[in-house]
């Protein structure tokens, strides 16, 4: 399909080319409704600004795009706080897109970011994203920094939590409190965070002379009614698990509800530990043990790296991965007596 032009958008909406151009630049001269119509039309027609023309103009939008799976997710809301703090200090606006965990919306978000001529992109991949051709195409126009959920297929800086160490610490804690059949609930297997947390879980088992049992691992999505059936599958095993380690606090909350519905006592019958450290984790009943990720600091570091690339106008060094430490918070959901000497 031939790329759309400003004239195509103007013809489609029956407005002038200059109005389209100013709307795409987010000019104060254009009313919000017209801007909305122009942006929707640009996305529908797959309009992309000409990067050569933009570079000749030497223009900068002083805007960054941030693409995350879900703003309501506690981790991402905290990361966005860190991103906005540093971006505003350095004179940049932030445009936020959420994919709602779908690849299709992620692709659409990148198209809109290009149409708005952002200077760079910060992204955490959706749970459906297993290929990165759309990001490689975007990278021809503006720099990218990945954070949290990242892809090794994309040559960009990455800023992540130490998922391996966090999962290792969580699993080892359960082992030290006497648990031997530790189930692991996680999300899609191709995601970086899934692989790293699964590797940490497995390493802790093997280091403590416990065999890795793949029947104790369940992969899923963030579906609202999904955790209960997965818990039932695991409890039907013989012997059943005596602990659950979930790859996110969102899964942990679902697991907590499912275990309660099945009249299992936590931690007397089964222990439960999560990963993220929701603000309400210590207010649950029982209070939830969890691994904390430094989300705000990850956001700050990711945007600082992106702005350094933008302002230098070239990639001064090969892409590198920054790994930030996690912290284990032990609360009532795993509070049996520690069996270590």
Automatic annotation (TrEMBL):
<dbReference type="InterPro" id="IPR028082">
    <property type="entry name" value="Peripla_BP_I"/>
</dbReference>
<feature type="domain" description="HTH lacI-type">
    <location>
        <begin position="4"/>
        <end position="58"/>
    </location>
</feature>
<dbReference type="InterPro" id="IPR000843">
    <property type="entry name" value="HTH_LacI"/>
</dbReference>
<dbReference type="Pfam" id="PF13377">
    <property type="entry name" value="Peripla_BP_3"/>
</dbReference>
<protein>
    <submittedName>
        <fullName>LacI family transcriptional regulator</fullName>
    </submittedName>
</protein>
<keyword id="KW-0804">Transcription</keyword>
<dbReference type="InterPro" id="IPR046335">
    <property type="entry name" value="LacI/GalR-like_sensor"/>
</dbReference>
<dbReference type="GO" id="GO:0000976">
    <property type="term" value="F:transcription cis-regulatory region binding"/>
</dbReference>
<keyword id="KW-0805">Transcription regulation</keyword>
<keyword id="KW-0238">DNA-binding</keyword>
<dbReference type="InterPro" id="IPR010982">
    <property type="entry name" value="Lambda_DNA-bd_dom_sf"/>
</dbReference>
<dbReference type="Pfam" id="PF00356">
    <property type="entry name" value="LacI"/>
</dbReference>
<dbReference type="GO" id="GO:0003700">
    <property type="term" value="F:DNA-binding transcription factor activity"/>
</dbReference>
